[in-house]
Amino acid sequence: MAAQEQTHTPLEMRPFQIVVACTRELGIGLKGSIPWKLPLEIAFFKLLTSSTSASSKRNAVIMGRLTWESIPSKFRPLPGRLNIVLSRSPGPLSMDGDVQVCSGLIDALRLLAAPPYLTSVETVFVIGGGQVYKEAVELSNCDAIHITQIDLSCECDTFFPAFNEAPFRLWYSSMPMIENDLRFTFATYIRETARGYENGSQDNYNVEKPLTAVSRLPKMIREKHEEYQYLNLIHDIIQTGTEKGDRTGTGTLSKFGCQMRFNLRSHFPLLTTKRVFWRGVLEELLWFISGSTNAKVLQDKGVHIWDGNASRDYLDSLGLTEREEGDLGPVYGFQWRHFGAKYTDMHADYSGKGFDQLADAIQKLRIKPEDRRIILSAWNPSDLELMALPPCHMFAQFYVANGELSCQMYQRSCDMGLGVPFNIASYALLTCILAHVCDLKRGEFIHVLGDAHVYKNHVEPLEQQLKNIPKPFPVLKISTKEKDIDKLTARDFELIGYDPHKKIAMQMAV
């Protein structure tokens, strides 16, 4: 069990971040050297620890003496950074202007919390070795841990310590990379709440209003949160989108042909800059999977996202006067499970009728995962006039590599304010479910957007949303061992750590 965190008041010590590369077993070195060769990792380390937002500032790197001595002499001190070496016998190290020597980590952090370093150093990084890391992870002013996770087991004699993960949440995880036959990822974990210094003067210390660790992340890491793909696209559409009319008469600003990618391996992309109706996402997807076209099934569960398109007035406006209220016609679930079957009404039994695309996809994922025809299509031109709403998210392809399942979905019409946050979560969830029932690991969700639009009456609430800073994505846990997709229920899913900003109301265009 990890030791209790050491607590010091913000005025005592400078907040800092840890940078480390380690194996599966948290190994970081052997006999004073690194037992792998990853030039990309070295380049990332240099970029992370050297980059600053203010050109007049530099960063500081803190290391133990053994780590200092393990760096080839031609590369030390690490250029462009203030090097601080921890040693009780400083020797000649203090002779170099870019090197300071401190007797311990606490002394170094106190030094950096005082002039001139308080205002001249932007970010402080602890970079090793094992004993320094052990002390650092137990300090409450550790804002973040930047970790290169190397998929390798090898002999090591120095290790990164197991640490108390409770205060930390995953902020960013890169897609897996391969170099010199080694698979690795970059990840950043942040402390959820933190107090202390934020680039400027000592006046920025504020005990009453804690600063978040996010605000002190290097910009290159802060902006890697995948939610910024969505926020940046919203901003781009509002600023430069083409003004267009639309079916609803509301009017839109629009862009054509966009893409977002979400990593499903470690977290779940449920947007955090506003509250997304998770229960609605879950119940709707299970409703799709069941093949139902009856909006009343969702209404009975308190989910009313289809009410506008299932109302008597709306159906009558489409000429579907004979259609019972709540009957949406052959929409998503019907096409997934009964493609090509003749649709009569929402009460009919369609068992064994049409082509079950979902069952076919599952079978191929299980027995022939290399197949390039693992497709789920909701677009059936012969049925469009029978649908209350033609499918917006219409085509998904599934792909397996290295035992990981990924999904690419094409969406023809993308309501960025209301629909897209739901759609991201829905197809990410579908990918996680299919990975579960097919004994695969989770990979990526790639969202391809055709007409990506912002309704004009959504501009103001979306501009409000753009002011919110993303929070760490939650984690999705599927608790059941059930592999029959038709037997899954909402009770089998647990969303852990979802702490979004408040709900932002937007009116649905019908």
List the helices and strands and how they pair.
Elements lengths: L15 E7 L4 E3 L9 H12 L7 E7 H6 L10 E6 L12 E4 L2 H8 L4 H4 E6 L3 H7 L5 E9 L7 E2 L8 E6 L3 E3 L2 E10 L27 H4 L4 H14 L1 E3 L7 E12 L14 H13 L4 H5 L7 H4 L1 H6 L14 H7 L18 H11 L7 E3 L15 E9 L2 E12 L3 H19 L3 E15 L3 H8 L8 E4 L14 E4 L14
Parallel strand pairs: 1-6, 1-7, 3-4, 3-6, 4-5, 16-17
Antiparallel strand pairs: 2-8, 7-11, 9-11, 10-11, 12-13, 13-17, 14-15, 15-16, 18-19
Helix pairs in contact: 7-15, 8-12, 8-14
Written overview of the protein:
This protein has 510 residues and is of the alpha/beta class. The protein folds into 2 domains: 16-222, Dihydrofolate Reductase, subunit A (3-Layer(aba) Sandwich), CATH 3.40.430.10; 227-339 and 353-496, Thymidylate synthase/dCMP hydroxymethylase domain (Thymidylate Synthase, Chain A, 2-Layer Sandwich). 25% of the residues lie in helices and 25% in strands. The protein contains 15 helices and 19 strands. The chain has helices spanning 39-50, 65-70, 105-112, 117-120, 130-136, 219-222, 227-240, 278-290, 295-299, 307-310, 312-317, 332-338, 357-367, 419-437, 459-466; strands at 16-22, 27-29, 58-64, 81-86, 99-102, 121-126, 142-150, 158-159, 168-173, 177-179, 182-191, 242-244, 252-263, 375-377, 393-401, 404-415, 441-455, 475-478, 493-496. The strands form 4 sheets. Strands 1, 3, 4, 5, 6, 7, 9, 10 and 11 form a 9-stranded mixed β-sheet that branches. Helix 14 links the parallel strand 16 and strand 17 (441-455). Helix 8 packs parallel to helix 12. Residues 194-211 have low confidence and may be disordered.
